[in-house]
Design goal:
Beta-Lactamase, five-stranded antiparallel sheet, single chain, TIM Barrel, alpha/beta, Alpha-Beta Plaits, 3 domains, 20 strands
């Protein structure tokens, strides 16, 4: 290795170098230092280093710096000043190290001087560079965090996505396999989401999904995981089920959280979900492959279990339909009208004062080739959740209008009531279809009433209001069915083009309760005040008939008065009904024969 030319380095260094004896006498100095102080090297040699310092700095250097050098042998970054040309002051930083005496050489102090302004500039540049590196590292870390977040979380709701959910289920099953606990899962599907999305727009749909996500988080409880599985489907994972009814409790909390109407783009929209739950006991399943299979099975089980609560959450009676049977019924229902398997039965509606049959509710029946006669409770939910409700609904509407027109030609001015679904209301071809049906059957529009369940006409009032108005222009009446079971009020109804309310049968069955009687009387009074016709359905006992006639209801309907029957039998009921204009029920207890 080539030896370093120390003397050349010493004199060419950009910093000022000074070597002094321990008393401060300068014994060597480089060119840089000479230029700073404006004195040539020869003049500096043999002079005192203190002469180059201002008076105040001399005292500090002589008492502090030299004393520290005597004690510890070094001094780092002493801030002081030098006297330069024309005795101008030059801020500098001094670093001093004492070289001990050796081999006959006396001890010396080696002083390295750097201009403070240059030092600070370099320091600022260094700090700026370091800060830039830190900011770049922070930005990189943020991007990595965002990438991880996007990879494992839903961007719309911020919830765990399917990938993170499946990982979490697997981890929960692995832990449960060693602890003996059960893993629970609730599968949630937003009811009627497609209808909301199509009618109010995708922005409103996104707001609904965010609202559901917030409600699920609030209801899930500490330690449980909420995920968006896909579209309008959500999952609540319970890694450790601590009580037999824990999943039921969480489901109740979910429904409670979603009960108040959501404010969606400034509008009140009722949002509810269908919920299915399942549990897994991984005690006997330890392998990774088996745990993954069990995780998939857990989701599938909860999804399948959702079908029963989905109908229940909409306030409908339900016979439990297992998934294979449901798929079979949906397949068989397609084309049932064209094959002549659907028929319509008619349940009479009576004038409460006279006992005259003034109307009929059209109720569909399905004569299944293998299962026999099925009532709507067995297949209407399936029709509504598929695209079959329009086929079934159109069949019922045409049948009711045709039969009603026949009865009118026979001298019976009967009004027909037909149940319609929200799917039909949102279909742009439904209103023209009504008009065409009325024209083709020669049935007057003011003799037809469409019944819509309360929860749907109110919760989706904004969605359907335009459709309802257009239907009313045809002269067709609109009835709110099952009134009293949803979130609406008669005050809300005044903003809708309805003409009738039907009191839910649950209030009729509890007429012995003073509260129910007062509720019915209140509905009748306020309904009449709004110009609405009030119908009481579910009359099944003589006492109910007597009480309801006293409340001022306009029409009565129920099994005690007359069951749903086929066309021929309904004509028989009309034959025994008092003629219009006559008063008095035909029997002492008011019951009509059937």
């Amino acid at each position: 290795m080539k030896p370093v030319d120390f003397e050349r380095f010493f004199h060419a260094a950009p910093a000022g170098y000074v070597v002094t004896a321990t008393d401060g006498t300068i014994v060597e100095v480089n060119e840089t230092f000479s230029e700073w102080v404006g004195t040539d090297r020869a003049s500096l040699l043999g002079s005192s280093f203190l002469r180059i310092l201002p008076v105040g700095e001399r005292i500090m250097y002589g008492t502090h710096a030299m004393a520290q050098l005597d004690e510890v042998g070094s001094l780092a970054e002493l801030s002081t000043e030098l006297l330069g040309v024309n005795r101008t002051r030059i801020p500098v930083l001094l670093s001093i190290a004492r070289q001990p005496a050796a081999e006959g050489r006396p001890a010396t102090d080696w002083i390295v001087a750097s201009r403070a302004t240059e030092r600070r500039l370099h320091e600022r540049e260094l700090v700026a560079a370091l800060r830039g590196l830190q900011e770049a590292e922070s930005a990189r870390n943020r991007l990595l965090d965002e990438a991880r977040q996007q990879a494992l979380h839903d961007p719309l709701t911020g919830l765990a996505n399917r990938a993170l959910l499946q990982r979490s289920i697997r981890d929960a099953l692995m832990v449960a396999a060693s602890t003996g606990e059960k893993v629970g899962l609730l599968f949630c599907d937003v009811n009627r989401f497609k209808r909301i999305n199509d009618s109010l727009g995708h922005t409103a749909g996104d707001e609904v999904l965010r609202h559901v996500a917030a409600c699920l988080i609030a209801a899930a409880g500490f330690g449980n995981i909420v995920a968006r599985y896909s579209g309008d489907e959500f999952v609540v994972l319970v890694p450790a089920v601590n009580a037999a009814n824990e999943l039921d409790v969480i489901e109740d909390r979910i429904r409670l959280a979603l009960a108040p109407p959501a404010k969606i783009l400034g509008r009140d929209v009722t949002v509810d979900v269908a919920v299915g739950s399942a549990r897994a006991d991984p005690e006997q399943h330890g392998s990774e492959e088996t745990l993954l299979s069990l995780a998939t099975q857990l989701i599938d089980d909860a999804d399948a279990a959702m079908y029963r609560p989905k109908a229940r959450s909409r306030g409908k009676p339900l016979e439990r339909i297992h998934l294979p049977e449901r798929i079979r019924l949906e397949t068989d229902l397609r084309g049932a009208a064209g094959r002549g398997e659907l028929t319509v039965h008619y349940q009479p509606q009576f004038d409460a004062e006279t006992g005259t049959i003034v109307g009929a509710e059209a109720l569909v029946r399905w004569q299944h080739p293998e299962l026999g006669l099925l009532t709507p409770v067995a297949f209407i939910d399936i029709a509504e959740e598929s695209d079959l409700i329009e086929e079934v609904g159109e069949f019922v509407l045409v049948s009711a209008c045709s039969f009603g027109a026949q009865l009118r030609r026979e001298g019976h001015a009967i009004k027909m009531s037909v149940n319609v679904s929200a799917n039909q209301l949102t279909n742009p071809r439904f209103e023209p279809f009504i008009g065409a049906t009325l024209g083709n059957t020669d049935f007057p529009g003011d003799a037809l009433t469409l019944e819509i369940t309360e929860s749907r006409v109110i919760s989706e009032a904004v969605i359907h209001n335009g459709a309802l108005e257009n239907i009313r222009k045809l002269g067709v009446g609109l009835s709110v069915d099952d009134f009293g079971t949803g979130y609406s009020s008669l005050y809300q109804l005044r903003h809708l083009p309805v003409t009738e309310v039907k009191i839910d049968r649950s209030f009729i069955s509890s007429l012995s309760d003073e509260g129910s009687l007062a509720f019915i009387a209140g509905i009748v009074s306020l309904g009449h005040g709004l110009g609405l016709r009030v119908v009481a359905e579910g009359v099944e006992r003589p006492g109910q008939l007597t009480v309801l006639r006293g409340t001022g209801c306009d029409r009565l309907q129920g099994y005690y008065l007359g069951r749903p029957v086929e066309e021929l039998e309904f004509r028989g009921l009309l034959a025994t009904s008092p003629s219009h204009g006559q008063t008095g029920w035909p029997f002492a207890d008011g019951r009509h024969s059937s």
